[in-house]
Amino acid sequence: MNTKNQIKTKTKTYTTSEMASICGVTVGSISVFIKKNNLKPTKTGQNNAKYYDDSVLKQLRLHYEKSKSKRDKTSNNRDLKTDLAVAQSENQLLRDQLDAAKSTIEILRNELTIKNSQIDKLQDLTNQAQQLDLATHTQHQELLEQKSQPTKQHKHGIFNWF
Q: Per-residue pLDDT averaged across 56-77, rounded?
C-alpha cells in the first residue's frame, strides 16, 4: 500500500483545561505535571493551544488517582478538625446564650416579685379607699336625713319657758 492511501487512525486529543476538568484538578497542577515530566504536545492549535493525546491523559489520571487518596485522607482529617472546631464554637455560643437567658429570667423573676408586692399594696389601699368612701357616704346620708327632719322651733318669750 501506498503511504498516501493509508488511513490515519484518529486519536482524541485534549487541552490542558480539558485534562484538568477530567482529573478534577486545576490547570496549574496539570501544567506543573507536564513540565516536571517533560511531556510534549501532540499538536499545537490556534492561539498556541497545546493538545495532548490519550497517553498523557492516562499518566495524569494514574498520578492524580494515587495522590487523590492521600489528599482525601489529609483533607478528611482537616474537615473533621474544622467540623470539631465549628461544633465547639457553636456549643460555646449556645452556652453563652443559655447563660444570658438564665440571667434574664432571674431578673424578670425578681421584677415579678416586686410587682406582685406592689399589686398587693395597691389592693389594700383600694380596699381602704372603698371603706372610707362607704363611711363618708353613710355619714353624708345621715346628715341629709337630719336636715330633712323638721326641727322644733323655740318660741321666744317668758311663757314659752314653762
A: 74
- CB contact at 8 A, 19 and 30: yes
Average pLDDT over residues 110-135: 96
- In 3D, which of 56, 63, 76 has the Cα closest to residue 25? 63
From the DSSP assignment, how many helices (H) and strands (E) are in the chain? 3, 2
Measured CA to CA, the distance from residue 53 to residue 118 in angstroms comes to: 90
Residue pair 23/64 in contact by the 8 Å Cβ criterion:
yes
pLDDT digits (tens, 9 = 90+) for 5-56: 444 556 788 888 888 888 888 989 888 989 988 888 888 888 888 888 888 8
Rounded to 5°, the CA angle 139-136-127 comes to 140
